[in-house]
Amino acid sequence: MALKLADVIAPPADVREKDYLWTLNFGPQHPATHTTLRIVLNLDGEVIVNSVPDIGYLHSGFEKLGEHLDFNQYVTIVDRMNYISPVANEIAWHQAVETLLGIELTPRCQYIRVIFSELMRLHDHLLCVGAAALDLGAFTAFLYAFNQREKINELNEWASGQRFHPSYTRVGGLQRDLDDVWIGKLRAFIKQFPAALADVTGLLNRNRIFLDRTRDVGVLTREEAINRSVTGPVARASGLVRDLRKDEPYLAYKDFDFKVVAAKEGDCLSRYLVRMEEMRESIKIINQAIENLPSGPVNAAVDDRMVLPNQLSVYRSIEGLIHHFELFMTNRKWKPPVEEVYAATESPNGELGFYIVSDGSGTAYRARTRPPSFIHFALFNHLAQGHTISEVAPILGSLNIIAAELDR
Amino acid sequence: MSEEFPPVIQALAEAVSSEFPNGLLGRTSFRGNHRFHVCPKQSHAILKYLKTRGGFGMLVDLSAADYLQYPDAEDRYGVWYCLLDVENGRRLIVKTNANDPDPSLDSVVDLWEGANWMEREVYDMYGIEFRNHPDLRRILLPDEFVGHPLRRDYPMRGKGERHNFPVLTRAEG
After folding, report:
1. In whole numbers, what is the pLDDT of chain A averaged over residues?
2. Residue in chain A nearest B154 by alpha carbon
3. Beta strand pairing status for A340-347 and A366-370?
4. Which of B33, B65, B143 is closest, CB to CB, to A341?
5. How many CA atoms lie within 13 A of A57 on its CB side?
6. Spatial separation of the C-alpha atoms in residues A33 and A28, rounded to whole Å
7. Are A387 and A245 in contact (CB under 8 A)?
8. SS3 B28
9. For position A319, what pLDDT does the model report?
10. What is the 8-class DSSP label of residue B170?
């Protein structure tokens, strides 16, 4: 019954006239895949007749781990899914948990999470744009983009102690509050960022090679985008104007003034342009959030017994210590309702949702991730058919496939 | 724990129950998630109705859970379809179920192309077969893999598959 990869890639035995088709293995180790994924291409000369993506090289059972780690522990695994925008995953995971538990976040926490979501959007889009440019020979743009990403990594480190996998959110709050030094660093970052973005724009927007290799390549129509479950910048570049930040405002997004960026053409170039413009909107959101950052606690009401108490009260009061133990001992933890919930956020790559099935214990019974990379990579054959082999690189680059999220 | 349904979903539920007698087994709502529980035999027909008549043009998510150790669960596997009405921004979750020994459901790839890989993942992880799926293969695990690792009776640390991997020596390589 079950098909195998070999059944799909081998040309049918009776088709003698298709003998000239050539099968080429692309990946799993190839500079343009950036991560570990493999595509088996069927070529007619240089033209792709058919392609069969073969994934799973990085599969490490994240969703199985999600059934054995509690709501706070699993955040370290979620970090490692789309490691290009780690805090965006954490926010999505904890949003699902908080929806399940019915926790209302404090205004300060909501604003800080918005700031981090947008920083992660910059982080992700810079990688996507930079790496796509790198594959097309524009090496300088890549360096300019990565220079800025380094500064965001420093902000992560200052806030949480970790550069790459910050694990910054907690159920109902954050690992720790931001201090004035961090806010000063963020202001300095925001101040110099538009100039750097203008540099990248200047290097690419009139780059003849970049334009020729991305324009009208990998066209996705709006109907196909809907049919194939596409979300995020890839969908918006095809004229499917949907942004959960506007359509289903979560956190504090309804307080901010920003535009949803969209394009009509649906090719690699418009996906690049949408991402560049989204970065400008993100800067606007961060500016508004930092100027209006509310004061007050970052963690939701401690009386709910759902949020970790602060360190000081754990060390200096018996109530704090008991409360801390209640959330850490394996037979206590949270008492969520026996229910299931789907909650989604607009992550840089698209709709990142978590479907949690809860059996009433502090660990998810099932922690399903809706991974945008997985759904976008399913597009690949549709986009690549009829293009030449050299156009694999821009198509992959414009979809921003992160293999750790693809395979989980 | 049930909440009020918005009038549109309410009307849709009534339309579905009159169109498919015995098709809609129940509906629940929790923190803004509205769910229709449907009979697995009619799931494809109901999803088609929701797509064409209900306006739910996009399948946002499709996945499953194994309810083997779940409190008061009657069916072994639950499969959910998270639908989205792109024009009006409405969401609806359709849940159906499957049972041993041959868990299977009708594929919805003919309705939404996006279901292709998601159904393959469910097949890979839970062993639920989707009838009429154009390309039902394992997707994340290798073809030779035996078992379905997200089932609750599959141990967390695996069944020793890694120890049986062939080892290439330097001379062979």
Report:
1. 87
2. A64
3. unpaired
4. B33
5. 14
6. 8
7. no
8. strand
9. 83
10. T
Q: State how far Cα B8 lies from the chain centre.
A: 24
Single-letter code of the amino acid located at A352: L
B87's tokens: 């024009």
Instruction: List the single residue in A with minimal CA-CA distance to B60.
Output: A229
DSSP A303: G
Tell me the average pLDDT across A44-50: 86
Give bridge partners of residue A344 from the DSSP assignment.
Answer: A353
Q: What is the mean pLDDT of residues A21-44?
A: 81
Q: Do A5 and B89 touch (CB under 8 A)?
A: no
For chain A, how far is it from start to end, CA to CA, in angstroms? 26
The answer for residues whose C-beta is within 8 angstroms of residue A188's C-beta and 6 or more apart is none
> What single string gives the DSSP state of each residue in A70-81?
BTTTTHHHHHTT
Whole-angstrom distance, CA of residue A157 vs CA of residue A164? 8
Structure tokens at B88: 């009006």
| DSSP tag of A371 | -
| Whether the Cβ atoms of residue A381 and residue A52 lie closer than 8 Å to each other | yes
End-to-end CA distance of chain B: 60
Residue with tokens 């000081």: A312
Q: Per the CB < 8 Å rule, is A102 touching B136?
A: no
In the predicted model, is pLDDT for residue A303 greater than 70? Answer: no
Could you give the ipTM of this predicted complex? 0.90
A122 touches A279 (CB < 8 A): yes
Q: What is the pTM of this model?
A: 0.89
> CA–CA separation, B147 vs A310, rounded Å?
44
Q: Which residue has the tokens 């821009």?
A: A394
